[in-house]
Amino acid sequence: MSVAVAVRIARRELRGGLRGFYVFLACLALGVAAIAAVGSIRESIEAGLKREGALLLGGDAEMSLTYRHAEPAERAWMELIAVQVSEIVDFRSMVVVERDGETERGLTQVKGVDAAYPLYGTVELDPPMPLDQALAGNGAVMERVLADRMGLVPGDQFRLGSADYTLRAILLREPDGAGDGFGLGPRLILREAALEGSGLLAPGTLYETKYRLALPSGADLPALEARAVERFAGKGMRWRDARNGAPGMTRFVDRMASFLVLVGLAGLAVGGVGVSAAVRAYLDGKTEVIATLKTLGAEGRTILMAYLIQIGALAGLGIGIGLALGAALPLAAAPLMQAQLPVPVAVTVHVAPLAEAALYGVLTALLFTLWPLARTEEVRAAALFRDASGRVRGWPRPVYIAATGALAAALIGTAAAFSGVPKLALWAAFGIVAALGLLVLAAAGLRRLARRLARARMVRGRTSLRLALGAVGGPGGEAVSVVLSLGLGLSILAAIGQIDANLRGAIQQELPERAPAYFVVDIQPDQLAGFLERLNRDPGVSKVETAPMLRGVITQINGRPATEVAGDHWVIRGDRGITYADRPPEGTVVTAGEWWPEGYDGPPVMSFAQEEAREIGLRLGDAVTVNVLGRDITARITSFRDVDFSTAGIGFVVTLNDGALSGAPHTHIATIHAEPEAEAAILRDLASAYPNITAIRVRDALDRVAEVLSALAAAVAYGASATLVTGVIVLIGAAAAGERARIFESAVLKTVGAVRGQVLAYFALRSAMLGAAAGAVAILAGGLAGWAVMRFVMEGSYAFEPVSALAIVTGGAMATLLAGLGFAWRPLAARPARVLRGRE
Amino acid sequence: MTDPILSLADVTLTLAGNAGPVEILHGISLDVARGETLGLVGPSGSGKSSLLMLMGGLERASSGRVLALGQDLTAMNEDALARFRRQHMGVVFQSFHLIPTMTALENVATPLELAGHRDAFDRAAEELRSVGLGARIDHYPSQMSGGEQQRVALARAAAPRPHLLLADEPTGNLDGANGEAIMDLLFGLRDRHGATLVLVTHAPELAARCDRVVRLADGRIAGQDVRRAAE
Ligand SMILES: Nc1ncnc2c1ncn2[C@@H]1O[C@H](COP(=O)(O)OP(=O)(O)OP(=O)(O)O)[C@@H](O)[C@H]1O
Ligand SMILES: [Mg+2]
Q1: Which residue of chain B has the CA closest to A461?
Q2: Which of A349, A640, A809, B49 has its CA 20 to 30 A from that of B191?
Q3: Half-sphere exposure of residue A202, counting CA atoms within 13 Å on the CB side?
């Protein structure tokens, strides 16, 4: 073969311009643009987080402790390495306001700060004033949501524990807010010194201290971390520094972006179907050219090469447009992002995400054009003499099948590697491939059925219906490409709809039914008896569970650092609630080993949550070291038990025998199941008798979670809408490609006596059948995906959600109908002779 | 000729060509009597097909009047024309124009169905057999030869037993034997059902069997040969 000849042929063919390729270009450009934009935004946020790490963290480094302050010697060590040290205490509490004999209570995340706070940045207040001035004496500032909920304005008084404070200003922005992570309550800031006398930081209370260090410029962070870890070994200290100022945020952005890239890839797959259809239609139109070239002596390979060059050039153009859009979009949206996001954003053109998007684009273009291209080799010169419209049927040569497999593997592999969530990516790819398979089957089934029905007696006399059935079942590839592209887009939307509805349902309905009304923390041991007494005599209370709680970090497993054994498992990440018990609490199901005997007072022993133990790889008899209050306790695992974390009840991964922990200062937690009518009175009585305790209304907490979820769902919906737009473009493309055929059919039908109404009904029925088939598969595929995600990822139950499913199918059928009818207008208006003459 | 089935009075046709409007037919006046067989002959590009389209109401005359069965085709809208053709006319195109997504049987049955015949498919099958395509009933157009497609097109036009059959080179793609069969079919239609035929043809044998032959040149009627007066 001759490459030069191929290039010359390609160049001549490309002179025809881009007509017929707009759908091809749009599909590729849109998919690539979506992925490039998501990647660029992620990169922008992460670059911003990195650049502003110290600001977000509130210092160049932070050393935090649970339950305790730094000892003087420890503090001295910090002063030694730092230029300046700022101490913060962080805990949950309840703001109490009494007004006209009514008592209002609101959950809050309290930050007690010293005079050095904030080391970096400034706290913005309304009315504007220096933080010093706002916090002087018993002054405090809080977020507007909390002030509004409590009906407070600057100048008003409120109580926290058993001390009174004055709200001086509304907290607009704390520089280290994004680094603090997810709090269940709005923020309140006061001086740590002002907490004295509030009774809130009694021994055993859940609180955290954070020491922010301003380091000399050029400080070697990794070296300092190593020194700190060594100095504080076994003291329960956690180190963070400006290299990753907001790890929670980084993780969130990462996950979110990975997820959106997967959605973008799904969009690219939808686009791929359109690309494939466009190339097929183009090459079908070239059958005569190809046959002629072959008659003139061109080899199959030369022709394949010529068209490969053409399609490659066009794909390059589409991908280029996509990259330009994907890079420009974040730049254009930069002001908006900077205003809307609570984190700094460094918006520039980032090369890595563009390269990633381009790679996806190239692989997709190759994957979806290979088969139609391969068929050019098989067009025989005889096509000129037989029917020029006849398509080459059957499978392409094995080389191309193998190449297709390799390309698909490369695409999925790349997605798995780059997304950072390989398992999810693989499952998503599997889902998409399965959906495509299902759609191919559905399209084939539909054509079969239509062909059969078209012959059935019952449709005789219903000309429009028979024509529609004949067109769906007859030769021509339109049915397949419409069902495929629309069906895949709709399937993805349906899956998202199902998952979203089920998650929402789980959070808002199912959970609260089984979940307690209140979750209470910081009950001092001497308060427990009175606390239980108040609840047990209340007929509105159906169940109360309590457990002692301390917080501890799992530091070692069998003498090796826990992170080495368990990697990044959530159980060893940061500190966990840990409890102790003599007898197994009511309802405990021991799945392996045995609970220690009552009154056991030998060396420490432990019962571990079975599921988590399995994930980490723990066995009975393993030694686990837990650091509680700076003290290492090493215990042998003697049993595993079932722990259900999904009901918002009390669930501890680690339970120790009571001899091991009961000496340590600790508090109790409780869950209260109560009638809704009894809730208010319970809260009032408990909170006034025990001002130090914090009661979290589970429904409020769930609402917060639901809010976060809504934001997630909204982001995903944006991603999915790109998929939908691609689907609509493919649909319009298919309708446009079919327009010539429609015009011709309508002219012939009119010649043999069909009125416009009949022709229109025929077109409408045809579109509706294709739309309905795509929609039906979408419901099935969406339902399956929803079920799989709920069952295996969320480990929850699945219930089919009909509203969104129905909306999606109707939308799909309507879309095809509109696209079909939109393109039917011209055919109907045309005079038969004008149309038919052009084809003489 | 008292009651012509077709009557064209001073008809012109102007089409928008690339270099502006082109007048293709210039003031054609022509009557076709009931039961007559009219042949249209003339060099390529002389306007034969265009004239046939005008007679079938498939093209709108730029000026003049086209009366068919006493009705003015130039005044009818698309739907009225479609219904008129459904009841009275069959058209065979020079390049057949079968619908590619339909089998031969379906192509032939469609006009019968549109005309409200309950036994459309049986009649369509019968018609296909009569043009020698009994074995090709379930074939799609792309699976048939040119001549076979032409016979399907003829069956489609003839099946509803139209009063007026317009055929553009109905034997153009056929060999002697098949062309003969088609001619027999066409003239049988006339003899048995009293149909009027308008045939465009280059074939002398076909022209010879016509009652009258009208010769077109450059969009004008250049002459007529009357073989046999219409009764
Ligand atoms: N859409 C059009 N616009 C302008 N001119 C046209 C158009 N279609 C056809 N013509 C011209 O009209 C003239 C008559 O065409 P017509 O098809 O009626 O010829 P014909 O006699 O049937 O020829 P043939 O025997 O080759 O089929 C031709 O010169 C042709 O070039
Ligand atoms: Mg002609």
Answers
A1: B113
A2: B49
A3: 21
- Of A430, A440, A494, the C-alpha closest to A775 is A494
Predicted pLDDT of residue B52? 92
Note down the domain range covering B174: 6-226
Say whether pTM exceeds 0.80: no
pLDDT in tens, A614-632: 888 889 999 999 888 778 8
Cβ B100–A840 below 8 Å, yes or no? Answer: no
Show the low-confidence residues of chain A (pLDDT under 70).
1-2, 16, 178-184, 204, 342, 380-394, 476-477, 507-513, 574, 645-649, 717, 794-795, 827, 838-840
Residues of B in contact with A839 (CB under 8 A): 95, 97
Half-sphere exposure of A638 (CA within 13 A, CB side): 16
Structure token digits, residue A207: 């609180």
Length of chain A: 840
Say if B77 falls within a structural domain: yes
**Is B81–A837 a contact, with Cβ atoms under 8 angstroms apart?**
no
Per-residue pLDDT at A381: 64
Partner residue opposite A752 with nearest CB, options B101, B114, B118: B114
Residues of B in contact with A461 (CB under 8 A): 113, 116, 118, 120
Number of CB pairs < 8 Å for A and B?
110
Looking at residue A45, its amino acid is I
Tell me if A837 CB under 6 Å of ligand 1. yes
Tokens found for residue B140 = 């799609």
Q: What's the rounded Cα separation, in Å, for the pair B188 and B158? A: 11
What are the tokens at B50? 């265009």
CA distance readout (Å), A238 to A62, A233, A481, A567, A574: 8, 10, 56, 16, 8
Residue to probe by mutation, ligand 1, list B11, B25, B48, most atoms within 8 Å of CB? B48
In angstroms, the separation between the Cα of residue A569 and the nearest Cα of chain B is 60
Mean pLDDT by 10 residues, chain B (231 residues): 84 84 92 92 91 90 92 88 90 86 88 87 92 88 85 91 91 76 82 89 85 93 77 44
Q: Do B111 and A753 touch (CB under 8 A)?
A: yes
Do A470 and B91 make contact, defined as CB atoms within 8 angstroms?
no
Pairing of strands A84-99, A102-113: antiparallel
Give chain B positions within 8 Å (CB) of A840: 49, 93-95
The alpha carbon of A746 and the centre of ligand 1 are apart by a number of angstroms equal to 22
**Residue A232 CA, ligand 2 centroid: distance in Å:** 99
Output DSSP code: residue A603.
Answer: S
Tally of domains within chain B: 1
Nearest CA to ligand 1 atom 9: A837
- What b/e sequence results for A404-429 when a residue is b if at least 16 CB atoms lie within 10 Å of its CB, and e otherwise? beebeeebbebbbebbebeebbebbb
Residues of chain A in contact with residue B59, where contact means CB-CB under 8 angstroms, are: 831-834
> Is B123 among the domain residues?
yes
For residue A437, the number of C-alpha atoms closer than 13 Å in the C-beta half-sphere is: 6
* Position B183 in a domain: yes
Instruction: Tell me A217's DSSP state.
Output: T
Domain regions of chain A by residue span = 1-57+246-420, 61-218, 438-515+698-840, 541-674
Question: Does any domain span residue B193?
Answer: yes
Q: What is the SS3 assignment for B14?
A: strand
Specify the CATH number for the domain of residue B21: 3.40.50.300
Which residues in chain B are contacts of A741 at CB distance < 8 A? 100-101
Atom of ligand 1 nearest to the CA of B46: 21
Residues A165 and A110: their CA atoms lie apart, in Å, by 13
pLDDT of residue B230: 46
Q: How far apart are CA A575 and CA A355, in angstroms?
A: 39
Question: A474 and B81 in contact by Cβ < 8 A?
Answer: no
Q: How far apart, in whole angstroms, are the C-alpha atoms of residue A629 and residue B188?
A: 110
